[in-house]
Design a protein that fits this description.
Length: 194
């Protein structure tokens, strides 16, 4: 049975608020006013960042957690406070590059290497599913989805969700230490006896 602790819920809430703040500028529409000043005129940019980015991050980690629990391990969602604070500092100093590794799942249990590979793969797979869903809705000709897309806010969220999750899927599968891709590869190689 999948259980959540109060700390996990607190971490998800903290991650949501911080991510909305960190990426809100991505959803600001910048125009030059008649005085020559740049005007940021999207009052919903904080919420747009939350709706577009947070589901991909949280579902990524929850797919790790659910898969680990399925294999009989204990798994806990954690926010990486260090990386969250680091990303907030980068935003506050106006860095053009924002790096965010805001969460991870700690796993307790003794599982075979192939199980760890599958657990690692399921996070990026969650991002791939979100990409497919957003892409399907954006390309769909059905009346239901057409009405949904007529709203500019929905279109922005769907388009951002599609792009961000496509990036997260491939980025997390890079086989470098610390990335899910290395854990997938390592578990497969161990299973094959290498």
């Amino acid at each position: 049975m999948i259980e959540f602790t109060l700390k996990e819920f607190f971490d998800m809430l903290l991650l949501t608020i911080a991510t909305g703040f960190i990426f809100s500028d991505l959803f600001n529409i910048r125009t030059i006013s008649y005085t020559g000043y740049v005007v940021k005129n999207n009052k919903n940019s904080f919420l747009l960042a939350i709706y577009s980015i947070v589901p991909g991050i949280i579902l990524h980690e929850l797919f790790h957690k659910f898969t680990a629990v399925f294999f009989g391990a204990q798994a806990y969602f954690n926010t990486s406070y260090f990386f969250l604070i680091f990303a907030i500092i980068l935003k506050l100093v106006g860095s053009p590059f924002l790096f965010l590794a805001p969460a991870y799942v700690s796993i307790k249990g003794n599982l075979p290497p192939i199980s760890y590979s599958l657990i690692a793969f399921m996070g990026p797979f969650a991002n791939f599913l979100l990409y497919l869903i957003a892409d399907f809705i954006l390309k769909s000709k059905s009346k239901l989805f057409s009405k949904l897309k007529e709203n500019n806010t929905n279109f922005i969220i769907l388009n951002a969700t599609k792009r961000i999750n496509f990036f997260l899927f491939w980025f997390n599968l890079i086989p470098l230490p610390g990335f899910d891709g290395s854990k997938v590869l390592y578990g497969i190689l161990q299973t094959l006896g290498f």
